[in-house]
DNA sequence: ACTATGCGTTAGTGATGACTAACGTATCCC
DNA sequence: GGGATACGTTAGTCATCACTAACGCATAGT
């Protein structure tokens, strides 16, 4: 899996990261938010830990998972490296087009 | 594949989008930048077109591919929806820790 | 010590993805 | 028309992934 962006892009893991963003949670608490089994969540968490996006602290018989800020920073760096200035300009372009209603036909510079 | 973020996260497609960000290109021109076959690139392009991130214009016997700004905007929206305020705070936290050799004096509680 | 709980681990399955090779098709040039 | 070019398309392979079910292991509570 190697890179953080690929790991974080997966829908389930995306939601997991969002949950952990606001507060640290145990595996069970996270799994309660999903329809899949706790085992599946556990494996997603291990993968996220592998790429350094989360860390686990063993407390009693539970594992408290939390986001690892340094890993998150690497993720942001990957996103930033992808989202170049040119892409930003194109998005601004789309915004301009959108503001002039729906059709985008015959609106070329 | 359904969502743009999952599609754009794949390393090869990421590079393709970056190439197309600065200029429109034909399939052959794109494929020349990779070690994989032109067929593989073509399929990646079709997938990117499916999720609305690129469009193709047939010109003679070539196909000019370019980034679709509206699709790119949807991608940015997905990223923004993922990158919540909480995650931003955590990243700021990581930055504070990393730059402890430059500015270190009492950062947070 | 016994049992229940909270997790990780393993094995196995089905689906999907990335890729190559070969083929089909439209277009350009002579 | 004939051959080369620029693609998409298809079929098939191999690896990876998301998932479930069953098990194993440590800890907490009694």
List keywords for this structure.
6 helices; alpha+beta; 109 residues; disordered C terminus; DNA-binding; homodimer
Give a structural overview:
Two copies of one chain form a homodimer. Chain A has helices at 4-9, 11-22, 27-31, 38-50, 69-82, 85-98; strands spanning 25-26, 54-59, 62-67. A three-stranded antiparallel β-sheet of chain A has the order 1-3-2. By secondary structure, chain A is α+β, with helices and mostly antiparallel strands. Chain B binds a DNA duplex (30 and 30 nucleotides) through helix 4.
Quick structural overview:
2 copies of one chain form a homodimer. Helix content of chain A is 59%, strand content 13%.
């Amino acid at each position: 899996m190697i890179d953080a962006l690929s790991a974080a892009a997966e829908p389930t893991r995306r939601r997991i990261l969002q949950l952990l963003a606001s507060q640290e949670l145990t595996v069970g608490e996270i799994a309660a938010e999903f329809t899949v089994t706790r085992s599946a969540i556990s494996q997603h968490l291990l993968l996220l830990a592998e790429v350094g996006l989360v860390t686990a602290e063993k407390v009693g018989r539970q594992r408290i998972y939390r986001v690892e800020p340094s890993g998150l920073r690497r993720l942001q760096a990957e996103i930033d490296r992808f989202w170049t200035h040119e892409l930003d300009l194109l998005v601004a372009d789309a915004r301009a087009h959108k503001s002039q209603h729906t059709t985008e036909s015959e609106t070329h510079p």
